[in-house]
Amino acid sequence: MLRIGLTGGIGSGKSTVAGLLAAHGAAIIDTDAIARRLTLAGGAAIPALRAEFGDDYIDTNGALDRERMRTLAFGDPAARQRLEGILHPLIGEQAEREAAAAAAPVKVFDVPLLVESGRWRARVDRVLVVDCSEETQRARVVQRAGWTDTMVRAVIAQQAPRARRLAAADAVIRNDGLTLVQLETEVAALWNHWFPSGGTGTRSV
């Protein structure tokens, strides 16, 4: 059994790497996906969010108004801490339930804010950081999501600096200028380094 914490800044390619690890047989526990489910209409976080932030932050369908909350959290660090205080424990509990239910011997916890949270390092055996330059991050997100450069810079400013993420890493995949095939090769090389005998019983890309 091996628990890997996967993290990286916005636009780093972390989700693509998660998919490649899944192709090797790892179970992926996606904390962003868990957060989205928790904040849908009827989600477990909605009552606490409504109580803390009011009806204005719940949309007409009963889900969290993500755009409005994002604006508040980016502009108000105290509000962001209140939001995280509600979501992070619920995310952690659900992540552990999903990990326990997964049969794969390698569990990959995809956690964008792994370094920032201060909680996740003790929950995983190794930390894998997907890294790239800030210029690459901004270009990817503007192209992929249609955000403005100002919006992307604001998100990057809220995340841990690259140096802090790299200092927490047991392994780093540098994803500047790589094609998908080259990225697959990097992931396969790391997988084979960690599991040289194929003892996980998983298949290769």
Short description:
The chain is an alpha/beta fold and 205 residues long. It has helices spanning 14-23, 31-38, 46-53, 66-75, 77-101, 114-117, 134-145, 149-158, 162-167, 180-194; strands spanning 2-8, 27-30, 106-110, 126-131, 171-174. Helix 2 (31-38) crosses helix 5, helix 4 (66-75) crosses helix 5 and helix 7 (134-145) packs across helix 8.
Description of the structure:
This protein is an alpha/beta fold. It has a single domain (2-191), classed as P-loop containing nucleotide triphosphate hydrolases (Rossmann fold, 3-Layer(aba) Sandwich), CATH 3.40.50.300. It is built from ten helices and five strands; from the N terminus they run βαβααααβαβαααβα. The protein has a five-stranded parallel beta sheet with strand order 2-3-1-4-5, with helices on both faces. Helix 4 (66-75) crosses helix 5 (77-101) and helix 7 packs across helix 8. The longest helix has 25 residues, at 77-101. It is globular and about 55 Å long. The two termini are 20 Å apart. The model is unreliable at 201-205 (pLDDT under 50).
**Can you give the mean pLDDT?**
92
Topology pattern, helix = H, strand = E: EHEHHHHEHEHHHEH
Indicate the radius of gyration in whole angstroms. Answer: 18 Å
Number of strands: 5
The largest beta-sheet arranges its strands as: 2-3-1-4-5
Head-to-tail CA distance between termini: 20 Å
| Low-pLDDT windows of residues | 201-205
Shape, principal axes of CA atoms:
globular
Helix percent band:
40-55%
SS strand fraction: 5-15%
The main sheet comes to: 5 strands, parallel
Proper CATH architecture: 3-Layer(aba) Sandwich
Name of the level-1 CATH class: Alpha Beta
Total domain units: 1
> What would the CATH topology be?
Rossmann fold
Query: What is the assigned CATH homologous superfamily?
Result: P-loop containing nucleotide triphosphate hydrolases
Number of helices: 10
Classify the secondary structure makeup into a structural class. alpha/beta
